[in-house]
Amino acid sequence: MELVPSKFFITSSSAFSEVSDLNAFDKALISAGIGEQNLVSVSSVIPVGAERIGICDMPMGAITHCVLAQMRGSEGETIAAGIAYAYRKDGKGGYVAEGHIHGSAESLKEILKWKMDEMARIRGVEFDGIDFVTEELAIPMDNYGCCLAALVFTEYRRLRCRTASPSAEAAGAPA
Q: How far is it, in rounded angstroms, from Cα 59 to Cα 76?
């Protein structure tokens, strides 16, 4: 049986800490509504039929799959983190790109657009349009900071794995 995400939400936040970048990250997670989950990083595919929903409460400690972008920094730095996502024009799902930089959210959006354009190019597909969610933070003196953005999968459907086509098997793909 394969778990296929059927619902997701998008969130972002930024935070400061006088103690450490880890504490700034923790505060940003809490502010984004995902600070009580055990986050598991996944790659960047939005399954066919997956629906975007509003941010929802999840049980404390839940294993939570997400595409997460984060950037940590220290005093005097400007940092940015974000995601871009798009659905394929043919209706067969979509993709997410994450990114982080020492720099502005505007510069990051340009980088994310390049990444999404390349994802479409190498797959030979077109997107309906690209949406961006970014955070930018100018970190004050005597502080650490963190920006983050995430696409968080919340619900799943179970599908049976199908046998690969003969051409996929010949190419060495698992069955």
A: 37
DSSP 67-134: EEEEEEEETT-EEEEEEEEEEETTSS-EEEEEEEEES-HHHHHHHHHHHHHHHHHHHT--EEEEEEEE
Q: What is the pLDDT of residues 42-53, one digit of tens each?
A: 999 999 999 999
Sign of the dihedral defined by the CA atoms of residues 41, 46, 49, 52, in that order: positive
Cα distances (angstroms) measured from residue 126 to each of 60, 66, 116, 150, 163: 38, 24, 10, 23, 28
Domain-by-domain residue ranges, the chain? 2-159
User: Is residue 81 a contact partner of residue 134, using CB atoms and an 8 Å limit?
Assistant: yes
Q: State in words which class domain 2-159 has.
A: alpha beta
Cut 0.90: pTM above it? no
**CA–CA dist 64, 32 (Å, integer):** 14
- What three-state secondary structure class fits 39? strand
Q: Pull the structure tokens for residue 97.
A: 């790109």
- pLDDT tens-place string over residues 119-155: 999 999 999 999 999 999 999 999 999 999 999 999 9
Separation CA 95–CA 118 (nearest Å): 11
- Chain centre to alpha carbon of residue 155: 16
